[in-house]
Design a protein that fits this description.
Elements: H1 33-44, H2 49-63, H3 65-77, H4 86-93, E1 116-117, E2 123-125, E3 134-136, E4 138-143, E5 149-154, E6 160-163, E7 168-171, E8 196-201, E9 204-211, E10 213-215, H5 216-225, H6 231-241, E11 245-250, E12 258-263
Antiparallel strand pairs: 1-2, 2-8, 3-10, 4-5, 6-7, 8-9, 9-11, 11-12
Length: 264
């Protein structure tokens, strides 16, 4: 499920474009993470939106009442909960501030795509990762009692536009429109790599492995050399890679799932 930030500007006229340094608001993209999370839940999950969001809402109440209010509405209404905060989002990042974000951008739906598999069908990768891209991600992976595996990669963006009213930081991944240059179409995903893979054998997924730092090409080669994703072999490959961390949750045989983090 592709939850990458999208290029903004859906439904708006093409701006003239900037000739100098664009404002930070011009780099704010359309957020897709809430829609991707709830799409995953609706497609593959069994719990309710409120149940899976309860922990995040509780944590936010201690840190930011404004953010807790946003998360609570998302938990109750799903992605359309964002529409209740359209006015605040537009005031902070919309046309009047030099930004491209529109209300129509907030209605975009994430795509569900087939994974890219290796020749032996032991590895399945996110299909949208450029092999030369450098991943700098956080990884979450888990297995439930029925052996269903989930893995996700996300970036903690440090560059963006603060929206104090909502307790949020609008992500600064979009490409500003520059005069004389071709405009990237609204709705196109921004280039954010995901160095994650599902690992398995005989068509059965056994676990998920992700790298927090590394070039996608190197990550794929590392996992291909240790397709069973056993800790000793993956640790050796990670140390050879020389940087980053590997995060994995694995179901080995009929035993309990094993989770671990390796750092180099």
């Amino acid at each position: 499920i592709d939850g990458r930030v999208r290029q903004p500007g859906k439904g708006a006229d093409r701006p003239r474009g900037f000739t100098g340094e664009p404002p930070r608001t011009a780099r704010v993209g359309a957020p897709m993470l809430p829609a991707a999370l709830f799409s995953a839940l609706a497609t593959f999950g069994t719990a309710t939106q409120s149940a899976v969001s309860g922990g995040a809402v509780a944590m936010a109440r201690e840190l930011s009442p404004e953010r807790a209010r946003v998360l609570d509405r998302l938990a109750r209404l799903g992605p359309r909960g964002f529409l209740e905060f359209t006015e605040a989002l537009m005031a902070a990042t919309g046309k009047m501030t030099g930004g491209l974000l529109t209300a129509e951008d907030l209605t975009l739906v994430p795509t569900i795509e087939a994974c890219t598999r290796d020749a032996e069908a032991t590895l399945a990768f996110a299909p949208w990762s450029d092999e030369d891209a450098e991943a700098r991600s956080e990884i979450v992976t888990a297995i439930d009692g029925r052996g269903t595996v989930a893995i996700a990669a996300y970036e903690v963006h440090e560059i963006g536009v603060p929206i104090p009213e909502l307790g949020l930081l609008a992500p600064g991944y979009a490409a500003p429109v520059r005069r004389g240059e071709r405009r990237i179409a609204p709705g196109v995903p921004c280039g954010i790599p995901a160095a994650i893979a599902l690992v398995g054998e005989g068509g059965v997924v056994q676990g998920g492995v992700g790298f927090t730092l590394g070039r996608i090409r190197d990550v794929r080669a590392t996992l291909a050399r240790a397709p069973a994703a056993l800790e000793p072999s993956l640790r050796a490959e990670l140390q050879a890679l020389g940087k980053g961390a590997a995060v994995a949750t694995l179901q080995v045989g009929k035993g309990d799932p094993q989770s671990w983090v390796l750092r180099a």
